Amino acid sequence: MEATRRAAFFDLDRTLIAGASAFVFARAAREAGYLTTKDFVRDAVKAVQFRLTGSTDEMTDAVRDQMLAAVGGRQQSDLVSLNEAVLPELLGMIRPEARNLIDQHHAAGRDTYIVSASPIELVEPLARALDMTGGIGTVSEVVDGVYTGRLAGPFCYGDGKAIAIGDLAKREGIDLEKSWGYSDSSSDLPMLEIVGHPVAVNPDANLSRVARERGWPVVVFSQRTKTVVRRSTAASGAIAIALLAYSLGVRRGRSIN
Question: Helix, strand or coil for residue 50?
């Protein structure tokens, strides 16, 4: 397909929303009875520790494997059911500047996508609720409504985001050189480097440095929530997956350490 369309790709945490979607997902899982308050607090502490120490390739692989192990054998409907509680809260966290950008890109004839390491079952409904073109998230293999414990595409984090965007661009005929990318984290450098118009949004220290060196635009969006958990360079998407995987694993009666 000839690449004639243009698009804008938005990271989720601290780009589209002010804060971390991980804790919204985990809280919804707790309220749905997927984990106890004690487990929620304990795993939140683990997530913050992971955030502060940063992530290596090995840690990212471990989070991916943890997620797949947790959902393997579980009904896909368990994950989808969280949207009833998650979507309204995430919509309330959308930055007004990001909402305006989405509208501007639509007015210019560009498609718009959320790109997140979170499961596609959570990313796609949020994108639809925002009247965006679609969502790009981690896709797990499902057979007869049950997760097999295997990926059905790239783990949508780091290089995986760029791979997923590239695959979409080929399918949909999107010209990436004429497309835009928005993120706050240097873990998303592969995603920003694959588009012709990268933009750093409230960037972390490493991304801020890279943006200055390469002459990329840097924008600062306001904080809209009272408590915003700031991330280190690379952890937000992985935190969301780890917390959600843990919650589902607890419901299955096993601990993920």
Answer: helix
Q: Which helix (H) or strand (E) covers residue 182, if one does? A: strand 180-183
* φ and ψ of 195, to 5 deg: -105, 160
Token reading at 181: 């990318």
Inside any domain, residue 256: no
Identity of residue 181: G
Question: 204 an active-site residue?
Answer: no
- 11 catalytic per annotation: yes
Question: What is the span of the domain harbouring residue 99?
Answer: 7-251
Domain count, the chain: 1
CA distance 36 to 217: 43
pTM for the full predicted model: 0.79
The CA-CA-CA angle for residues 23, 192, 227, to 5°, reads: 25
Strand 218-219, strand 197-201: pairing? parallel
Please tell me the distance from the alpha carbon of residue 165 to that of residue 160, in angstroms, as a whole number. 9
Report which DSSP code applies to 174: B
Domain of residue 75, CATH code: 3.40.50.1000
Which 3 state secondary structure label does DSSP give 72? coil
Q: What is the pLDDT of residues 37-63, one digit of tens each?
A: 555 555 555 554 445 444 555 555 666
pLDDT tens per residue, range 83-95: 898 899 999 999 9
